[in-house]
């Protein structure tokens, strides 16, 4: 895939790179930006009443480089509060799950920063399942990782693709990823 470098002015300069992947399997543009973003990698999520395919996820607010599929954008004022987007930051380890449990797809989803806790954001993510093997980011293997709650996640293919892409990045390099298994202790 081709790497594209550019500067996008959206209140501040943002450095962007492009690659393709998506939750649906269709190729999509991918960018690396510097700015404020929501990190939902280990976010617990709950169903949203009246919205069958959406969940609310409790994410953290971070500043720095992150990756996503939509163009870089700054915080935006909305009637609900300051809105940012959920984006990807490299992970160090995960468990692979292969079951029909629902999980949350949060990449590039809208998030509202908590007015009382600016380090937290509530993100509205898609509830998905049956997309193949998916990952749960964790520092230690637990049997409940693949069976408890709705957690923000990605498929193994998606995390592999973005990790390979980021290996070519000068600004957001991935960590070596450890795939955890039942034989490993935390």
Q: Helix/strand/pairing class, anyone?
A: mainly beta
- Compute the gyration radius: what is it? 16 Å
Q: How would you spell out the order of helices and strands?
A: EEEEEEEEEEEEEEHE
How confident is the prediction overall: mean pLDDT? 83
Summarize the structure.
This protein is mainly beta and 186 residues long.
Notes on the protein architecture:
The chain has one helix at residues 156-166; strands at 6-9, 13-16, 31-39, 44-48, 51-68, 76-78, 81-87, 93-97, 103-105, 110-114, 117-128, 134-137, 150-151, 154-155, 178-180. By secondary structure, the chain is mainly beta. The chain has a domain at 37-62 and 72-160 and 171-180. The strands form 3 sheets. The protein has a 5-stranded mixed barrel with strand order 3-5-11-10-7. The protein has a 4-stranded mixed sheet with strand order 14-12-8-15. The chain is globular. Residues 1-28 have low confidence and may be disordered.
Fold topology:
Elements: E1 6-9, E2 13-16, E3 31-39, E4 44-48, E5 51-68, E6 76-78, E7 81-87, E8 93-97, E9 103-105, E10 110-114, E11 117-128, E12 134-137, E13 150-151, E14 154-155, H1 156-166, E15 178-180
Parallel strand pairs: 3-7, 8-15
Antiparallel strand pairs: 1-2, 3-5, 4-5, 4-13, 5-11, 6-7, 7-10, 8-12, 9-11, 10-11, 12-14
Keywords:
186 residues, 5-stranded mixed beta barrel, 15 strands, 46% strand, globular, disordered N terminus
């Amino acid at each position: 895939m081709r790497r594209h470098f550019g500067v996008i002015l959206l209140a501040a300069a943002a450095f962007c790179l492009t690659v393709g992947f998506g939750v649906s399997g269709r190729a999509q543009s991918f960018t690396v930006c510097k700015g404020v973003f929501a990190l939902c990698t280990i976010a617990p999520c709950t169903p949203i009443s009246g919205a069958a395919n959406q969940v609310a996820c409790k994410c953290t607010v971070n500043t720095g480089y992150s990756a996503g599929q939509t163009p870089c954008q700054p915080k935006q004022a909305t009637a609900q509060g300051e809105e940012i987007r959920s984006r990807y930051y490299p992970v160090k380890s995960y468990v692979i799950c292969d079951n029909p449990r629902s999980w949350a797809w949060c990449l590039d989803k809208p998030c509202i920063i908590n007015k009382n806790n600016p380090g937290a954001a509530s993100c509205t993510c898609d509830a998905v399942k049956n997309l193949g093997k998916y990952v749960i980011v964790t520092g230690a293997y637990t049997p409940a990782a693949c069976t408890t709650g709705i957690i923000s996640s990605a498929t193994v293919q998606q995390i592999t693709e973005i990790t390979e892409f980021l290996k070519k990045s000068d600004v957001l390099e991935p960590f070596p990823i450890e795939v955890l298994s039942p034989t490993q202790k935390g």
